[in-house]
Specification:
The structure is a single chain. By secondary structure, this protein is an alpha+beta fold. 52% of the residues lie in helices and 16% in strands. Strands 1, 2, 3, 4, 5, 6, 7, 8, 9 and 10 form a 10-stranded mixed beta sheet that branches. It starts with a helix and ends with a helix. GO terms for molecular function: transmembrane transporter activity. It is found in: Cell membrane.
């Protein structure tokens, strides 16, 4: 074994380029596989990890302070089946004000709880911005800062002093919309108690209900909440990402198998001469095989360790980003056993890729093994080269184009690697364009400026001037915005809950008035967008759930009054409770009862949205209007784009290593031929041109083959994603390729082939003629 180890160490030191290639390719494969599997495993446990780390409440109960005492509520913490509890927290409801406020409230107001600190045995809060409340006049709100409603804002309610927003926090379960100190809530005339529980039995919604009933022991409960509801809401949102993550995981596994098998087996085959020399010196076939397995195992283990760390960090960062986007308090972490299994699998694959050709070489006689590594076989590719030389092509180009024919199997493997790289880049370009189109297809993404009909105004009321009298109606505000310089399009957007026969819950009807067509986007799947009152466009998921078709009549209940609408189209979205229609389709009474609409504005080309919003704010001081710049949400798009870019770079780098390995192996095999060419007068630059041309031809072929494969793969992935989500995909999101998008991926194969072939070709051309012919 000492001889095997000494020979292995010498081989690792002597063949630095191939040793480095093996280490890099194993690191890339491990990182890619760990990253993909880490995301897949986290997708199934992200909510559970966050819930466990934050000690989320299985259930929460709201008690009426007029019917129960604080001691009675506190006694429920010792109820049957309760393992931990927090509270009781006094709660108060801040009524929506008539006057100005820098924080928007729902019509029913804002429920706040008195809490001394964000920790505790149950439902630990995570501050995402600012700090915790320290004294009177301060409040921490649930969620993240949004738009103009951030730190330092004022929460105003009728009959209470203003509260300054000092922080934002998130929790694993639903609950109050804000928190103040216990002393502060006592000054807000509290009317309830809030208790949070963890139970021994809470595996399902029914178990949670039974456990809560046993804990409260007959006390009257004003309201209750279960963690199952929050979990289902999260899973419904996260399921939109699972198809993309699944594709990454599957492709990562495929790429890992291919690049390791290609590079490692090539490195073993290129050492046939070394194997023959060892056998001539007395090494047994088993020892020869062991030497080469160890030579591959050393860089493979180092590369696997680096890849494990890199993949773990990448997956952890991505899971943290997703957790933040979904407003979870903590993402937990990726599964370490799965990462370890992925690393072991990559090492096993590398060992198998080295063992198979090494076993074959170990059985070869010493003379045949030596000649296999130094002398090219006669007749292979000669006819093609003679024909190409007789053409008008330059001699190095003709000889180079004939080189792949001499080793068709190796050329096919190299071509497959290049095709994989081109396919990945083509699909990545398409996925990036598709995700960009999807995330910019909603009305918010097409909006330049959002103008609010002050959220501080009560339902159905118009903004008031400083004197308290109504200053303008919604129609007048719409006309005011239209008259502003730089306004291109403006529409009034609102939401109204309606009921549909056959559905237990309400459906959200999104209403638009004014010049709304430029805001609707390109997400239509079938039919068309609505153009006049009486027409409605539901989500595709709603259409499939209700088994409806374009042209069908849809009757909705609005404040108990039936309204019949005609379905003229369906838009791509997984929500089963969304309708879009002209605001005039609803009865006037319903429109008047709704909250004041938001005004969405698209400014003219060359108009600065920030300056436009500032002018609106100055003009709206007397009418209660406020404006803020809007635009597409770039966080998710950046996440997806980063994934596509990272994946494409890994594939291309792996393909380049495969090309480099193939050219290096070909140069060693054709050492005699290169020496003869240099002896008859071929300068080094023409030797480089000949060898680069051999790979460039494969690069061009990979572009011809890989681009159509990438387009087909993109179409398949996007279509499958739409079907898995039940939302469908709009045609503009699928058919995204044009010549400008196809030319860069088509050139990737050629660029990777040339860049991968250039270093070993230059190295081979620099070898002295005498050294190249020494094997003779």
């Amino acid at each position: 074994m000492s001889g095997v180890w000494a020979a292995s160490r010498a081989g690792v030191r002597r063949r630095r380029m191939q040793t480095g290639s093996i280490g890099v390719v194993v690191a890339l494969a491990t990182a890619t596989l760990v990253f993909g599997l880490g995301l897949l495993s986290a997708s199934h446990s992200m909510f559970d990890d966050a819930f466990a780390e934050a000690r989320g409440a299985h259930a929460a109960a709201d008690f009426d302070a007029a019917k129960v005492t604080e001691a009675q509520v506190a006694a429920t913490a010792r109820g049957s089946g309760v393992t931990a509890a927090a509270g009781p927290f006094r709660t108060a409801t801040l009524a929506r004000p008539d006057g100005p406020s820098t924080f928007p409230m729902r019509p029913e107001g804002l429920t706040v709880a008195g809490r001394a600190d964000p920790g505790g045995p149950v439902d630990r809060l995570t501050l995402v911005s600012g700090r915790w409340v320290r004294g009177p006049g301060e409040i921490v709100l649930r969620g993240k800062p949004k738009g103009p409603f951030g730190l330092g804002g004022k929460v105003t309610s009728q009959g209470h002093p203003d509260l300054t927003v000092v922080g934002f926090a998130v929790a694993a379960t639903e609950g109050p919309g804000g928190w103040v100190t216990p002393a502060q809530v006592a000054a807000l005339r509290p009317d309830g108690f809030w208790m949070e529980y963890r139970f021994a039995r809470a595996g399902s919604a029914s178990e949670v209900r039974r456990s809560l009933a046993a804990a409260t022991a007959g006390l009257p409960v004003r309201g209750q909440d279960s963690y199952v509801t929050a979990k289902r809401k999260f899973e419904g949102r996260f399921n939109q990402l699972i198809p993309f993550i699944s594709v990454f995981g599957i492709l990562a596994l495929t790429v890992s198998v291919f690049i390791i098998g290609n590079v490692v087996s090539g490195a073993v085959v290129s050492g046939f001469r070394h194997i023959g020399v060892m056998k001539a010196l007395g090494f047994t076939p088993g020892q020869v095989t062991s030497v080469y397995v160890v030579m591959v195992a050393v860089p493979a283990v180092v590369g696997c360790a680096v890849g494990l760390v890199a993949g773990h960090l990448l997956a952890g960062r991505m899971v943290a980003n997703l957790s933040e986007n979904f407003e979870l308090p903590s993402a937990g972490g990726v599964s370490l056993p799965i990462e370890a299994a992925a690393g072991a699998g990559v090492l096993a694959l590398a060992g198998l890729a080295a063992l198979v050709p090494a076993l074959r070489a170990g059985r070869l006689p010493a003379v045949q093994a030596i000649s296999a590594g130094t002398v090219s076989r006669r007749g292979r590719g000669r006819r093609a080269q003679r024909w190409l030389v007789r053409t008008r092509l330059p001699l190095p180009v003709g000889l180079g184009l004939g080189l792949p024919v001499a080793r068709p199997a190796r050329a096919a493997v190299t071509l497959a690697g290049l095709c994989l790289g081109v396919t990945a880049v083509t699909m990545g370009f398409g996925l990036h364009t598709t995700v960009t189109k999807i995330m910019s297809s909603d009305t918010e993404s097409r909006t330049s400026v959002t103008v609010g009909v002050d959220p501080r105004v009560g339902p159905g009321r118009s903004p008031r001037s400083s004197s308290g009298e109504p200053s303008a109606s919604s129609e007048q505000l719409l006309a005011t915005v239209r008259s502003q310089p730089g306004t291109a399009h403006v529409t009034a957007s609102g939401q109204r809950p309606v009921r549909v026969a056959g559905l237990a819950s309400e459906v959200s009807a999104e209403t638009y008035a004014g010049d709304y067509r430029p805001f609707l986007g390109d997400g239509i799947i079938r039919g068309r967008w609505f153009t006049r009152p009486g027409e409605v466009v539901p989500s595709e998921a709603f259409m499939r759930l209700q088994d409806l078709h374009v042209g069908d009549a849809l009757t909705v209940q609005v404040d108990g009054k039936p309204v019949t609408l005609r379905i003229v189209g369906a838009f791509a979205h997984p929500d089963t409770d969304r309708l879009m229609l002209d605001a005039a389709s609803l009865p006037a009474a319903a429109r008047g009862a709704a909250d004041p609409p938001r005004l969405l504005v698209i400014v003219k080309s060359g108009t600065d949205p920030a300056a436009y919003a500032e002018r609106i704010n100055k003009a709206g001081e007397a009418t209660g209007m406020f404006a803020e710049t809007a635009g597409p949400e770039l966080a998710d798009r950046a996440v997806f784009s980063g994934l596509f870019l990272l994946f494409s770079l890994i594939i291309c780098l792996a393909a380049a290593l495969g090309v480099l390995n193939g050219v290096l192996l070909g140069a060693r095999e054709r050492a005699r031929d290169l020496g003869v060419l240099k002896a008859v007068g071929m300068p080094p630059r023409r030797v480089v041109l000949m060898m680069v041309t051999s790979m460039a031809a494969l690069g061009v072929a990979s572009g011809v083959i890989g681009v159509p494969l990438g387009v087909l793969a993109h179409h398949g992935v996007i279509t499958l994603t739409g079907e898995m989500l039940g939302s469908g995909m709009a045609a503009p999101w699928i058919h995204v390729y044009g010549w400008t998008l196809l030319i860069p991926p088509a050139c990737v194969g050629l660029a990777v082939a040339v860049l991968g072939a250039w270093p070993p070709a230059a190295r081979a051309a620099a070898v002295r003629t005498v050294t190249a012919l020494r094997s003779e």
